[in-house]
């Protein structure tokens, strides 16, 4: 089947009402495509083998992985799309680690409250200096710290944060709202918005020149306990940035709920009352009349890593790109598990996504060359905080404003054919309408992710592109329970629970003979179909009204309409 005829046949199928029904036979039939499970398996077993040592950035495992990927891409007949005609883009990674602090304290009036790290306060730094220090900086409570013009919401009201420490509430303003409260539903209800993510809060504080940012921890709002907060032990990762792009934050992190209660009470304020006020549009930042001091020794190393990039050049508009992404990195070496396995090789996360990209590339090469270019990006350091994709998005090889869409494969279900596909990030972009249309062509329906409050949409590599305005779509098999042909939703949930409970980021994420890739083949074929249509059209997918990312895309609208 060639790609152009596939799009045409989709329209035909959609005209038949019978296809809207759930039909197991139809699902089975559509699953036999030119994406081949056996080839996926071979790629996964290779990349997850001990020879690749768990594919940690900066290790010999990386060297072998990069060599393998380039070899495969050359074999498929793709063109290099990295720097200077090569297959790679160098990604220098910064790895700063805090040592034992000399001091961490609040001062209010004449009184000093010493804090213990990491019990009362947990921080890290993204600055490459020898010391991370804040000396008597004024603290300001900024509520949820949201600046959302598309929602007519601004918690800052012009408050100057330069040289100050901003104190944030976790999650977004309607997370704790009761039914009937004015803010209820303004930020997606229990669905997390970008404004609820801790990454957003640190970025917003830095945009405003703050020297420190602290989020008040609360388990429900964060989605995890303090044990998760403190588990990195003062380590952090970032891409190496130019001096002018460095964050203004010397320290960023969290304070425990108890620490926050005391901080506010000592200042004669009530955290509960102020938290309620922060759920209103009229909220204004509150000076805490308290200063913050801390000093930590820092050791930093720079790890050299690489993204791998390949392309199929478009014949009509080669400067317009459809970008497929998956991350090649995994967790490297760790403590042996009960089977003695030391490598956390991410067979599913994300060797399977990499294998999917190879299959999509193979399918594209078997079809006539597309009108637009199709780029295949194999990102590094996703597991360190989406860093390979972040580096690319900050230093793009193809113009971001002419990047049509980004499709990301990161963990696929291995439990067999499904009657549905899981949508992550409902309401964000018109790509979800394309997803529904192409799923219907496979005889499948779309189900929403099961825990939108976890904000998966903001937690994989596609998000680096979304932040810069590129419409994105993520395929992530753990986003919800698939409605499996064999066993339905219940069996789908069992698979998700087993994978996330036992194997996620552990040595157990290994290939096994029980893997049934028929469902993964469906999902990969679906993304191939969506990208093939875009690569052969002059359509530009768009963010929907209310999306946090619509405004940034619209800034470059003239570049796209100038065709
Ligand atoms: Zn992953």
Can you characterise this structure?
By secondary structure, the protein is α/β, with parallel strands linked by helices. It folds into 2 domains: about 5-60 and about 315-400 and about 445-480 and about 490-545, Aminopeptidase; about 95-300, Glucose Oxidase, domain 1 (3-Layer(bba) Sandwich). The protein is about 30% helix and about 25% strand. It has 17 helices and 21 strands. The protein has helices at about 5-15, 25-30, 35-45, 60-75, 200-205, 220, 225-230, 255-265, 270-275, 345-365, 385-395, 430-440, 460-465, 490-505, 520-535, 550-555, 555-560, and strands at about 80, 90-100, 105-110, 110-115, 120-125, 130-140, 145-150, 155, 165-170, 210-215, 240, 250-255, 285-310, 315-325, 330-335, 345, 370-380, 405-410, 420-425, 445-450, 470-475. Helix 1 (about 5-15) crosses helix 12 and helix 10 packs across helix 15. The two termini are about 30 Å apart. The structure holds zinc ion. Zinc ion binds next to helix 10. Zinc ion binds near residues 349, 350, 382 and 410.
